Amino acid sequence: MAQEGGTEAAIAGQENGSAEATAAVFVSFKPQLVVPAQKAEEAVQFYKAAFGAEEVRRVSHPKRKAEQDAPLLLCAEIKIGSSSLLVCDDDAAATKPGEGVVFRLETEDVEAAVSKAVKAGASLDGELLEGEAPFGAGLYGKLRDPFGQVWIVASAGKSCVSDA
């Protein structure tokens, strides 16, 4: 659902110069590798075997039943050396065939960060949403920069909540 108070109005106001830009502070940057549907688990196992990746967290399908064909794993956060990345099944995060990387920025103020990006020339794909998604929970928005790259701006500390 969209945030009350009109993120779109705030964005439009900033574009018209009637509102000051709010500084957004990012707490993390995580590349998100989007693999073909139902291949995230296989990809994680490959990265463990090939590169010594360590699985940090994972998100499972919230409504998956044992007898369903839907994969158990939606998204996993892995570490290779000191770097982290998210490995996720293809979904709405990547809308064109062949888009395999989505950049994720985490912040305490998603609305301000999205507004700043839109003012700089990015386009907001849809509206800001609140809730569970394959790449985490909380408030998030999907942007496309002027060069076609997809960026997810999400609430800090909400990615890949552990299933444990």
From TrEMBL:
InterPro entries the record matches: At5g48480-like_C, At5g48480-like_N, Glyas_Bleomycin-R_OHBP_Dase, VOC_core
**What Pfam families does the record point to?**
At5g48480-like_C, At5g48480-like_N
Which residue ranges does the record assign to the VOC domain? 28-156
UniProt cross-references to PANTHER family, sorted A to Z: BNAUNNG04460D PROTEIN-RELATED, VOC DOMAIN-CONTAINING PROTEIN
Q: What is this protein called?
A: VOC domain-containing protein
Please report the organism this UniProt entry assigns to the protein.
Colocasia esculenta (Wild taro)
